[in-house]
């Protein structure tokens, strides 16, 4: 689509500008642009993949929240482990949180930060929205803050 083409060309232009500022060799610039192209291609392939609950096996429930729960799941075809956040649509509508949930999904999908959990897939059925994310053992930040109140400087550096 036009939007995807625009975003792809914008990312290429941004990368080229960044590489120019860093005075990179032509060889490195080409490697970086090829890498970006491969990532974009992989991302678009994943977006075209239609998934559903049948594509995952629940290992165990690892958390519960206001709109649903988080499960440790395994993808049936690859055996890869993910965290599946299951959100009840009725609760999101009732509490007028639909925009917040969409914003969360968009941020997770577009972020390329090592500090933000990666979203691999999202899909829905008539009752639930499912976010398939990178599984990071150790719990979530909010639970840790509630448990420990504050973190020492040493802990924040790890």
From TrEMBL:
ATP binds at residue 85. Pfam families: Pkinase. Coiled coil: none annotated. SUPFAM superfamilies: Protein kinase-like (PK-like). It comes from Acaulospora morrowiae. This is non-specific serine/threonine protein kinase. It comes from the Eukaryota. Keywords: ATP-binding, Kinase, Nucleotide-binding, Phosphoprotein, Serine/threonine-protein kinase, Transferase.
């Amino acid at each position: 689509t036009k939007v995807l083409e625009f975003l792809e060309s914008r990312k290429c232009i941004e990368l080229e500008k960044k590489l120019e500022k860093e005075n990179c060799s032509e060889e490195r610039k080409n490697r970086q642009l090829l890498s970006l192209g491969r990532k974009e291609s992989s991302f678009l392939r994943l977006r075209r993949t239609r998934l559903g609950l049948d594509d995952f096996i629940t290992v165990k429930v690892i958390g519960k929240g206001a709109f649903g729960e988080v499960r440790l799941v395994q993808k049936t075809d690859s055996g890869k482990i993910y965290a599946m956040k299951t959100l009840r649509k009725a609760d999101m509508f009732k509490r007028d949180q639909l925009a917040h949930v969409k914003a969360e999904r968009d941020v997770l999908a577009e972020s390329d930060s090592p500090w933000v959990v990666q979203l691999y897939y999202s899909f829905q059925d008539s009752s639930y929205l499912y976010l398939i994310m990178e599984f990071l053992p150790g719990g979530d930040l909010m639970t840790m803050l509630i448990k420990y109140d504050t973190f020492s400087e040493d802990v924040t550096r790890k």
